[in-house]
Amino acid sequence: MLDAPNARELADFYLRLLPGWGVWRDEDGPDWVHIRPPDGGTGLSFQSEPVFVPPVWPSRPDRQQMMTHLDIEVDDLERETARAVAEGARLAGFQPQAHVRVLLDPVGHPFCLYTETAQESQ
């Protein structure tokens, strides 16, 4: 579950980011959406939170901590980073690994794009 000021807007971002994914359930009203991959695997849920405070990356003890972050495997790190930015993500100022890109979704949740090579070298 990812909170956001507007669940549908954030779900739309992730639908653009994750090709082939679709809305699975949204009958609970405009403030809750669940999306999942075409094979029906684990999905993502989004809930509108009117007092949402975005997390800070990297974490600081006096600021909102991230509750979760997504790791998304990609084939071409530079191309997919550029595509994510074109869809509304921002490249995080702090990048702790050379073969991983930390980005912030439109409401500030951190997520990582990585290649299989990066996982093998860790």
From TrEMBL:
This protein's name: Glyoxalase
Residues annotated as domain VOC: 1-120
Residues in coiled coil: none
InterPro entries: Glyas_Bleomycin-R_OHBP_Dase, Glyoxalase_6, VOC_core
PROSITE patterns in the cross-refs: VOC (PS51819)
Highest taxon in the source lineage: Bacteria
Organism from which the protein derives: Streptomyces lomondensis
